[in-house]
Amino acid sequence: MSDMLILLAPLIVLVIVVLFGFVGCGGEPFTSRDTPPEQPPETPPTEPSEPYAKNIEATTGFLALWPLNDTSGIVAVATSPILNIDGEYKPGATPGSEGAFFHKEPNVNFAPELNGTTGYIEVPFHEQLNPSTDPVRFSVELWVKPAGGIPDGEERIVISSHHTSDTGNHRGYEIALVGTGAGDATVRGRVFHINDGAAEIDVTLTSGDPSEWRHIVVTYDGPAETLTVYATVVGTIFDKAAAKQTAAKYSPVQAGGGQRPLRFGAGHLQAGQAEKFFAGRIDEVAFYQAVLPDVTAEAHFNLF
After folding, report:
1. C-alpha–C-alpha distance, residues 53 and 254, integer Å
2. CB 148 within 8 A of CB 211
């Protein structure tokens, strides 16, 4: 009798499950007719945005880039696969502060802090950074973050390739911020000509934080003798401004006795000493052997 019960036990259990369903501890029976709870859809992983530098290097006419991402030392590493010339941080230029794209590239994107009295970055002279072969076309692009408002009329150089002879003949190009007495500095682009002095153009931003990042592009079109300045400030309001000037003649700084290094954050006196120091941060300095169109300048700003 007991043997028969042992043989029939699995069949008895199966009948009970079919008739009454499986009851969990304190729960309701679950049958194959019940619909399982819906699972929330999986969120696809967010693709990381391409680093700012990669977009710059892919731009038509690109030549050189100093991302200034160094966090220590005196070498300002250039990263261009085309023209790669390292610069030097002078005393008073301290690398390692948050760069313009730190919010997108954390712990990677940095910028030097310049003290406004001695600090700047110097890149050795190179003929390709002072183009002279017709047709001469070039552009300079960078991001700057002033330490604060600039006093009215005071000029602070952010880019300078400039030589002055003892007879007063000028060569090269510069970009400066000029104080307006208000919160917003004027962006000044300037090219020099040995016979015609300086041709310069000013763009004044009318809104934005005076201590916010600014995107600046200055282009020179030799055949058209046209100088153009684009400036945009970030913040709660993106203030954009642009201006163009014709009949702007340019004479390049040349190798030999008149050659001068390229400087970020200071200008050149006649004997070559630094002047007009910039206070704040400079980041992502790029040089192109082409005239950047306005749509490209805007696209680069929109990467912010």
Report:
1. 29
2. yes
Convert the pLDDT of each residue in 108-129 to its tens digit.
999 999 999 999 999 999 999 9
The token duo for 217 is 């592009």
CATH of the domain at 206: 2.60.120.200
Residue 189 within a domain: yes
Structural domain count of the chain? 1
DSSP 128: G
Q: 138 lies in a domain? A: yes
pLDDT average, residue stretch 234-263: 84
Domain with 248 in it:
62-301
Distance CA 7, CA 246 (A): 105
Q: Is residue 77 exposed (0-12), middle (13-18) or buried (19+ Cβ within 10 Å)?
A: middle
Q: Tell me the pLDDT tens digit for each residue of 41-65.
A: 554 444 446 899 999 999 999 999 9
**Do 78 and 84 touch, CB atoms closer than 8 A?**
yes
Helix (H) or strand (E) holding 138: strand 137-146
Q: Is 218 in contact with 195 (CB distance < 8 Å)?
A: no
- The answer to whether 91 and 265 have CB atoms below 8 angstroms apart is no
Among the listed residues 92, 64, 100, the one whose alpha carbon sits nearest the alpha carbon of residue 282: 100
